[in-house]
Amino acid sequence: MSSVPITPPANLQLQSSLLCLPAEIRNTIYSYCFDAVEPIIDSVVGCPRPEDGIAPKLGINILQTCRRVYYEADRRPLFAQNRFRFSTVDRVRCFFRSIDQYELCRDSVKDIEIDARNVHYDHPGIEREWLHYLAWGKGNWGKILGSLRVDAPGLKCLRLNFESWPWISMFRAELWDLLRSMLMQVEGLERVVIVGASKGRGMIAHAPWSPVHFVGGDDVGSDDLVERMWKVVRGGEDDIANKVLRWERQGGKLYLEVITRSYLVNCIDSKWTGPCMRNSYTDAWPENGSCTWFAYQHRHSDVTEPTTKGINPSAAE
Predict the structure, then answer these.
(1) Of 34-38, 172-176, 268-272, 309-313, where does mean pLDDT reach its minimum?
(2) Residue 30 lies in domain
(3) How far is CA 208 from the centre of its chain?
(4) What φ, ψ does residue 72 adopt, rounded to 5°?
């Protein structure tokens, strides 16, 4: 059943304290209403939420207060400020089709998270669908078969969530290959984040890029996760100096990311001053920290960084 169209307002509601404010202040208020702290999960505009879905804490009810607010509120911050998490390709494609009705909203989506919890060795189709969707094609086949690059042309950040690895029914080596393959053809982003489960002091003893955090085992094949993440993020003229490797442990999860320095300082952490240093390669990496590409490459030796160019976060600007 099609929804009943909402007609433009005849009453400007000038008795409202909100609507008497200057337009720029009203738009700021609308923007705050549309900002969710937690990710918005498997959302499709105009469709029921999955039975196990969690309602995001959003102030979108403000759109229902009156017709004037409904028509004048800029919805782009709703899509630009929030992180959208999806567990199937079908759900993410339905989401993008559902927002085509709102002008420029598809281009506004900046942050997409893929949740691997549904992959299963008995259902290989889910794995194949994600790999095809991330093939990053932008031609006719990408439009017909589906491609994240086509669906989200303004994407800045891609997150791959493997925190459910303890419950995923796949061999650890196969799950590791899936994670690596999902990064193979993605490129040109500002940030890529891999989320793993990392609880207990024993897990902290492992390096933040160890497969144990993301698939539950160390002996799973090629140790090239960071290298693949590095290629996903655009580098500019100086690929080495313009990016940084970061990690953070929070709530039993490990967040490993590669990010451009300019995006880090301007959009994520304005107080970031530079990567952490170790006195010796035998020292443990801090629970939360960051390092340069050079430090990662020479993580098993005491080779000194040749210059300090990469330590200044403004070097990429």
Answers:
(1) 309-313
(2) 1-80
(3) 18
(4) -95, -20
